[in-house]
């Protein structure tokens, strides 16, 4: 479903008129990401033959959604690096070490949006700045609006799923090891995944 559609007039000087979907306009507001029902994860190729998947369990963030003009929507996310979890304690410890994230010196990974756009239907792209180890570079995340509902506790929720691909070396994550058969232990390309459930904040009186 789109945040707006264009109705054109069949004249020489046709002017596009925005037709706002009332249901989507009603989503406009400020939201807090619910970490208990959200996931921020990654997938990376390991030893040239398989994928390793992991998540960051400890994260928080806020969204501002504009249901009538998606370009005015914003997002801010903070992720605690020490919460990385791939299911293997030794590997998680290596990821927290100076070889990779150096979680003690750089405890947070952050994303701050700078631009948002509708791609068509329920698909959107949010662009911003991703900071890892004090290195800040642009990142675009493609998102799909999953829907909106009121949960049994009366919370108004909205859901998004999205992904992006990065080269970890762009953020100074360069550790690797050569394989005897050729290639390297860890791919430079990393897929980031976002499964977000956010709760609408009550309007101030």
Description:
The protein is mainly β. Helices cover 6% and strands 54% of the residues. The chain has an 8-stranded antiparallel barrel. Strands 1-2 form a two-stranded antiparallel sheet. A hairpin with a 2-residue loop joins strand 10 and strand 11.
Order of helices and strands: EEHEEEEEEHEEEEE
Kindly name the structural category. Answer: mainly beta
Number of strands: 13
Helix content: under 10%
Low-confidence stretches: 1-18
Strand order of the largest sheet: 3-6-7-9-10-11-12-13
Counted by DSSP, the helix tally is 2
Distance between the amino and carboxyl termini: 31 Å
The oligomerization state is single chain
**Which band does the percent of strand residues land in?**
over 45%
Protein traits:
205 residues; mainly beta; two-stranded antiparallel sheet; disordered N terminus
């Amino acid at each position: 479903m789109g945040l707006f559609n264009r109705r054109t007039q069949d004249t020489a000087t046709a002017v596009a008129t925005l037709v706002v979907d009332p249901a989507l306009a009603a989503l406009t507001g400020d939201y807090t990401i619910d970490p208990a029902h959200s996931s921020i994860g990654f997938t990376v190729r390991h030893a040239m033959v398989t994928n390793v998947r992991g998540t960051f369990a400890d994260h928080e963030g806020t969204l501002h959604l504009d249901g009538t003009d998606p370009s005015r929507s914003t997002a801010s996310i903070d992720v605690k690096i020490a919460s990385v979890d791939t299911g293997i304690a030794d590997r998680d410890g290596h990821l927290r070490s100076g070889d990779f994230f150096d979680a003690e010196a750089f405890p947070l990974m952050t994303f701050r949006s700078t631009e948002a756009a509708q791609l068509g239907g329920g698909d959107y792209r949010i662009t911003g700045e991703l900071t890892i180890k004090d290195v800040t570079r642009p990142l675009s995340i493609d998102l799909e609006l999953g829907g909106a509902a009121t949960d049994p506790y009366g919370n108004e929720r909205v859901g998004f799923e999205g992904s992006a691909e990065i080269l970890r070396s762009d953020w100074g994550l360069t550790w690797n090891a050569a394989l005897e058969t050729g290639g390297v232990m860890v791919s430079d390309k990393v897929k980031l995944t976002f499964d977000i459930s956010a709760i609408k904040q009550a309007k101030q009186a």
